[in-house]
Amino acid sequence: MGAYIVRRLLLMIPTLIGIMAINFAVLQAVPGGPIERVLARFNDVNTDVTSRFTGGGSEVRDGGGASNAYGFRGIDPKLIAELERQFGLDKPPLEQFLLMMRNYALFDFGKSFFRDQTVVDLVLDRMPVSISLGLWTTLITYLVCIPLGIAKAVRDGSRFDVWTSFVIVIGYAIPSYLFAVGLIVLFAGGSFLDWFPLRGLVSDGFEGMSWWEQVADYFWHLALPLTALLVGSFATLTMLTKNSFLDEISKQYVITARAKGVTERRILYGHVFRNAMLIIIAGFPSAFIGILFTSALLIEVIFNLDGLGLLGFEAALGRDYPVMLGTLYVFSLLGLLTSLVGDLTYMLVDPRIDFEKRSG
Q1: Which tens digits make up the pLDDT trace of 21-39?
Q2: What is the CA radius of gyration of the chain?
Q3: What's the predicted TM-score (pTM) here?
Q4: Torsion-angle region of residue 354: left (phi > 0), alpha (psi -120 to 50) or beta?
Q5: For residues 297 and 46, which has the higher predicted lDDT (pLDDT)?
């Protein structure tokens, strides 16, 4: 197993470099950037000031009669050169990329262009929201879907199987953001009831509450966002669990066990359960990472939650390259590591699986 883990870790290096190189190249090709954003603000200020003194009828003129490479007139080239130096964009793209990867290898992600914080501090500030949404969504999904999938497999074709399938498919068909808006209208002071808060992860004065009041307040704020995320997440795992159990139940060893007089409960939980749960349990790490970093952007926006999804969205709109690329590096690295953890989980759940021998 040790050799397999080492090979996988070494393979992550070129994979991570490839991911970062592609995204870095895309950012270089996309029009607009941090300097353009600063110059646009500067140009707007100049235009507003000039309009006040000229009555709005005069244009901002180029001090030297020439326009610069960024398309803004009246901007001192020395200012542009200074901005390029401050943003680290005064070097050739290849040198920028190599310097960035060297710093990232040391987990030095730099400082945000437009916020007075380091990338690490920004991520740590937003992490509680994303962890709360991702962790509880994943745990509740597994706690509900696995027993439900087993029950549906045992009662395949029954009325229970049909109506539960209908309910979870309807939930899957409703977009989470649309369901979130409906919850706000119904329960968060929209048009009917005002039972739940609509902003933040905790209330003001949270630190002064007793521990049980803090727990209650925390889940009070999470109730609607979690419901919106959960409503569409049950279908996939439930049907995967059901189909995995149905596939195992139809195998020869189950038929043989029944012929020997083994009880259905012992067959189900003593023989079928371990084999059927292999793919489900092994997929838990990647499922958690997926929910944590990709599923909550609109929910965070709707419920005013400052999480990692919203941070990445704001960084993309603002061309905040250190935040964009730094978070991409961290998330990509976590994704690769959880993929390895998932494979190792396969081996723990079923010792018959040996990736090392298979790869050899």
Answers
A1: 999 998 888 777 777 777 7
A2: 27
A3: 0.74
A4: beta
A5: 297
